[in-house]
Design goal:
By secondary structure, this protein is α/β, with parallel strands linked by helices. It has one domain: NAD(P)-binding Rossmann-like Domain (Rossmann fold), CATH 3.40.50. Helix content is 40%, strand content 17%. It has eleven helices and 13 strands. The longest helix is centred in the N-terminal third of the chain and has 22 residues.
Length: 309
């Protein structure tokens, strides 16, 4: 059985990945303080401690590492660029170096937001990034540092949704929670992205590891849509009022961190190397709704520490 170390194991991707992978793999999660009674082995650590990464690899002796930990809140990154750089750039480089020294395969999770969104059409892995905020800039520094130090690593640019520990981490949860409460919410008509269900993303990442891939990949859904359309699709699937999703321009929103308008990423390279298409949006949305019906959101939240924010 493969032993996989997952950093950020209380996050949206990290927790879902750890739970799913635990069915077939020996999973070790790294978390600072948010998880309680998780059904996998847990190492409590602050990854910003300079000595933590090497110590964790020595203790866990993993066969592979998937690095999900990041400062992913765009507004928080703008407010604290030093912390963003430590988490999103310095830490991945340190982890890449340690994995190379230990000869352990690494997947580093990056973001579609490294692009400025000004291109007409689809972005490929050959397109030059142009980040427009602290979050995207530090994530780009992170992926470049990882591949420079450890060319055999995988850097995965992602965009995903699903059920989280707090119930508030994904755009899909925002739409479900707000519309269920009868609120009218904004859906951006001028932000295009390629959402993938977090559980599908986790499966793809494990498959990439198993195939021994390396280098830069776009690991997103194969279909592009606006965030307004995404909200409408969520409303329809959950039997909520799609009229409560109000079309709006992101430029007229109250958000302080800039958002790219076009994050349509090509998945041709990945689907070719895997030998099959990636899961389509309707399949992911159906599973997301089935999880809701089966009480999966409550199960996820049951792993939260009582004093976690």
């Amino acid at each position: 059985m493969t032993r996989i170390l997952i950093t950020g194991s209380s996050g949206l991707l990290g927790l879902n990945l750890a739970l799913d992978a635990g069915n077939t793999q020996d999973v070790i999660g790294v978390d600072r303080s948010k998880l309680a009674s998780a059904p996998f082995h847990l190492i409590k650590a602050d990854l910003l401690d300079q000595s933590a990464v090497g110590r964790i690899l020595d203790e866990a002796k993993p066969d592979a590492v998937i690095h999900c930990a990041a400062l992913a809140d765009l507004e928080a990154c703008e407010a604290n660029p030093d912390l963003a750089r430590q988490m999103n750039a310095d830490l991945p480089a340190r982890l890449a170096d340690s994995c190379a020294r230990h000869k352990v395969p690494l997947i580093h999770i990056s973001t579609d937001a490294v692009f400025d969104g000004q291109k007409e059409g689809v972005y490929t892995e050959h397109d030059t990034p142009n980040p427009i905020g602290v979050y995207s800039q530090t994530k780009l520094e992170g992926e470049r540092g990882v591949l420079q130090i450890n060319p055999m690593a995988i850097v995965a640019r992602v965009n995903f949704y699903g059920w989280s520990l707090s119930g508030k981490r994904s755009l899909a949860e925002f739409f479900v929670n707000s519309l269920s409460a009868g609120k009218t919410v904004n859906g951006f008509t001028d932000v295009v992205f390629c959402p993938m269900l977090v559980n599908h993303l986790g499966g793809v990442l494990l498959e990439m590891l198993a195939k021994g891939l390396h280098g830069l990949y776009h690991v997103v859904g194969p279909e592009a849509m606006s965030k307004y359309q995404f909200g409408v699709e969520i409303a329809r699937k959950f039997g909520l009022r799609e009229g409560q999703v109000s079309p709006q321009s992101v430029d007229k929103s109250s958000l302080t961190a800039r958002r790219s308008h076009n994050l349509w990423l090509s998945t041709h390279k990945l689907s070719t190397d895997l030998g099959h298409p990636l899961p389509i949006f309707s399949t992911g949305l159906e599973e997301f709704y089935t999880q809701y019906q089966q009480g999966y959101p409550q199960k996820i939240r049951s792993y939260q520490q009582g004093d976690a924010p």
